[in-house]
Write a structure and sequence with these properties.
53% of the residues lie in helices and 18% in strands. It has 420 residues and is of the alpha+beta class. The strands form 3 sheets. A 5-stranded mixed β-sheet has the order 6-8-9-11-10. A hairpin with a 5-residue loop joins strand 2 and strand 3.
Amino acid sequence: MSAYRLIDVVDRDRLQEILDKFTEATGVAAVLADLDGRNITEPSNFTRHCTLVRSTDAGARGCHASDASLGRLSLESGGPTMALCHCGIVDLGAPIVIDGVCYGYVLCGQVLLEAPRAADIEEARKRALRFGLDPDIYVESFLEIEVVPEHRVRAAAEMLHITANYIVEMGISRLTQKKLLEEDRKLAELERTLRSLEFKALKSQVNPHFLFNALNTAVRLAYMENATRTREILYSLASLLRYSLRNQDKLVRLRDEIAHVKHYLYIQEMRYKGKIKVTINIPQALDDVLLPVMSLQPLVENAVIHGLENKPDEGELRIIAYELPHHQAVRLEIIDNGVGIRKEILEKLRKAQNTNGCRNGGGLGILNVDSRFKQYFGPDYGLEIYSEEGKGTRVVLTFPRVFDVDNERGGTSGLQVADL
């Protein structure tokens, strides 16, 4: 059973135009009917006789019954089928079947294969009385019906059958495509919702260990000093929390992301007491380029916690950005000379990145960032991870060179920008 009705599938105006041209060329009347024999199109080139019959209730009922019966016969035969209607006129029917499902029938004909005989005319007079029509007018219209060779009628029916099936198939394809696009839209909306929930879950997971150490550092500084540096570290901590809470799922300027990272690194520098050297080199021309909020801090935190924390000597962290002019893109790199990532873990990260797979442990932030970049900008963007155990790790982010709509240097992006 089809999910569509014939009336929903066809472009009736277009099909009517085709039927009219067909009947004009062949001289054969035609109409498209549904499974119950009801006309989907206007009768095209119908004879005066058939129009007269259908103008009466009894005649119309007989015509609809004949059409439905002919349609069923054609479905059983699988192709154009010839039969006499209730008025003794030759009609042909052909099923409209797409992928094994019948949607309706092509009906054409209203011709005679030979000239009427006296007995045929007498029978016509009797029918006229049953329909409540004037017998003389009825017989006159009956004699006007064209006599056509059978092979010509069958050829016309076959051509119309092929044309109608093609039109209906295109209509079904169009509706199916529309339905698939709607399903894709719903799936994309669901995926965006899930990504948003995942991102909010990530933001809610502000590392308790980090907060504990930061607050401990603040307490020690408050004890040892006259509270100046304490105010600075607490200010950085408050800025971190405010940034993570106020920015939802919009894009932000690169300078805002860098400011957020600087607050994070200031706290970590206090904690590690000069053990980590930080270099940030971002061209001013890229200050207002847009990227997803909370993109850099998870990557920087990963470099500090998993790369530099266990390094016995001084560690170095570099954040650099530069343009790729030929690609209208920006590349941002976060480089550390820490302990690196073990080969098997790196392979798991890359596999999960390619398959959108499980995201556990330290890889959660990295893979979440990659997923969000692809969600915002497309599959050609995101991050790449390079690492060598004992030598360090380089995370490379690539994203389009899109500026804030309020920035005079950039064009209109049409993207939402978070208010900071």
